[in-house]
Design goal:
rod-shaped; Immunoglobulin-like; seven-stranded mixed β-sheet
């Protein structure tokens, strides 16, 4: 059988299969060989053809299938933890600096509860280097407002050592200071010796000319 003949035979076989799949009643297929020597399958009655009875394919009844309705989706539960209640912040505590509590800007001295003074400070000397007079002498000038209260006295301390006690003046001479760095503090003391007010320290370096 040649290639065209084989191809035609395949097409005829496919047509036969198609006929075989037609449902309902049995069909008759007629097979014969045409003038070209090709085998032909047809459903038209042909004289001298071989008759084939083709049984119909079985019919499969369709059954109704109940499809359940989809259940309503529940909202997703949040896994985030509930926010914690706000906590009260403790009051802020400020520590006083090394040289004592912080006073008002216009009052650099330390203030006690019974302090009647609004301003007390060392006006001279200032922080930094300064030249001494003969015998290591320097002048200390104070600023005091209002004036000294009755019974109060002024004291001057150099490097923690009292150089002036029980003074009522605002200008003092200190002598015998060695060259080098020093720390000067002025105090107002009551008649019982307690400190009413203390100035901001002055740190100076004494230079001997």
């Amino acid at each position: 059988m040649t290639a065209p003949t084989a191809l035609r035979a395949g097409l005829i076989a496919a047509s036969l299969c198609a006929f075989c799949t037609v449902p309902v009643q049995a069909a008759k297929i007629y097979q014969y060989t045409n003038a070209a020597g090709e085998t032909v399958f047809t459903d038209e009655p042909t004289e001298g053809a071989t008759v084939h009875d083709v049984k119909p394919a079985p019919v499969i009844p369709m059954e109704r299938v109940e499809v359940p309705e989809p259940a309503a989706e529940k909202p997703a539960e949040s896994s985030a933890p509930a926010p914690e209640p706000a906590r009260e912040q403790p009051p802020e505590i400020r520590l006083s600096p090394e040289d004592g509590p912080v006073a008002a800007e216009d009052d650099p001295g330390t203030t006690q509860a019974s302090d009647p003074y609004t301003h007390f400070a060392i006006e001279s000397p200032a922080d930094g280097e300064m030249a001494s007079r003969p015998r290591g002498t320097i002048t200390v000038e104070l600023v005091l407002q209002p004036g000294l209260r009755s019974g109060d006295r002024i004291a001057l301390l150099v490097d923690g050592e009292a150089r002036v006690r029980d003074s009522t003046g605002r200008r003092h001479l200190l002598n015998g200071l060695a060259p080098g760095a020093h720390r000067l503090v002025a105090q107002i003391r009551s008649d019982d010796g307690s400190v009413v007010r203390e100035s901001t320290p002055v740190r100076f370096t004494l230079i001997v000319p």
